[in-house]
Amino acid sequence: MWNIKNDVFWNTQDGQPIYSQGGGVFKFADPNSSKFKYYWYGVHYKEAEYYRDSSYKTQTTNTFESVTCYSSDDLVNWKFEGDVVTKAYMNGLDTAMWVGRLGVAYLLSLNQYAMFVQHGGKVLILVADSPLGPFTRHQEISMESMIGTSNTGDQTVFTDEDDGKSYLVYSYGRGRNRIYVSEIGSKNGKIGLMDCTQVFQGESREGNCMFKYEGRYYMCASNIYGWDASYAYYLVADNIRGPYLPANDMQVMNGCSDDFAHVTQTGFFYTIKGSNRETVVYCGDRWADFAGNGLGYNQWMPISFAGTNPYLNSVSSWHLEEPTGLWKVADDNNYIKNGSFEADRNAIPSSVKPAQEQLTGWATVVTEGNHVEVNGPNSPVLNYFNTESDRKQVIGEKSLNISDKVNFQRKVSQIVASSPYVALRDGKYVLTAHVKNSAGFSNLEMYATSGGKQLSYRVEKANDNWQTIEIRDITVSGGKVEVGFLATGEANAFCNIDDVSLVRM
């Protein structure tokens, strides 16, 4: 089994950075051997380089560099095949236009590969004779006659490997409150969209993508949160053109609520038809204007199923055996959800969509001090926005904030327990966090409780700079442990906490 590790920047098998966002993975025949391989296409943005080199800085633009192509035999070890669409080529077509949200379909009748790309306010189709490119302009199409807007809201390409047909999955260009499916094909030598079927109308959605599992089609999307993370939503159908159920009422995928789908937006999925089982891989994008939603652009996780209900296993490290489709959680997996406090886009509590009172994945209980409430004039703010100096020591734009304008006593906790598909195995664990705090606390501690036994680490003095604290040899029993922080402080005393992890020893 090969390891897939999230929350880090990915490299190719020879150690070069992987830059691939807003794309997809497809299975094509290698032109040199005719052996089928995985090909991963996505966009390389210049700011992705800047963020990787200096993750403490927020980038505010997205400059197209190229469409990249990587190949793999196992979905884990990737080889860079080259830039299949270059910046120079795109600049020759038009300058300063958005380029992104792309996928590739193979047209057997023409023996050509067609790439569908959002380009400015239309859909650009590029073609190549090989999956390795180069791809060149075929035509640019307006979606006006099909859906009423020239552009798509978001889009991906889905290939049904059971019959080889490919489809463009996309949303309405204004408001994104409708989702469509169009078969990709050719007519009179021109590659385009053969039809248009509306499969959803309701709440605005983006990050539109699809997968197939055990003969059923799953339409998926995220919320309209710009570049930030979101729940993963889904509908299910027996036919690719629907009806998708529940009708016009996308459901939140189980397993994604405690950390907004591992701090991602739906990117694409890939279904592995292994010798032992089908395994669906959720491939989430971390966009965030290449800012502070945690390290790494690509977060891949296995999906489990209870009947037709998918369950997102939000894991940071797992092993995949592609030939069989089997997977398991790795020993170095971090079991804490939203441990770097990046899932929440706003100051919490927040009245801004999504309105919420508590930090995602964490429970705050106030014993003394101001109550936590949305729009409360004296409510404490539960998260802290890290400065650039902070981000040189801790990960991301946000951290936990424990403070109040009056004397306070507070507990912030998370219950970590086995899920239906990922066991929190009994044994020894280590709990780690980064802490920065003022004076003014009569008690400030990190704790872990399992099986009726509690271990704790007391912070005894002020820390002007971030310090690492840990509790070792935590004995987890019964597949459950409560972890958290206890604070009793004077008015305006503060403690910031970041990068909490619980890892098996």
UniProtKB/TrEMBL annotation:
It comes from the Bacteria. GO terms for molecular function: hydrolase activity, hydrolyzing O-glycosyl compounds. CDD domains: GH43_RcAra43A-like. GO terms for biological process: carbohydrate metabolic process. Keywords: Glycosidase, Hydrolase. Coiled coil: none annotated. InterPro entries: Glyco_hydro_43 (IPR006710), Glyco_hydro_beta-prop_sf (IPR023296). It holds the Pfam family Glyco_hydro_43. Belongs to the glycosyl hydrolase 43 family. This is Glycosyl hydrolases family 43. It comes from Filimonas lacunae.
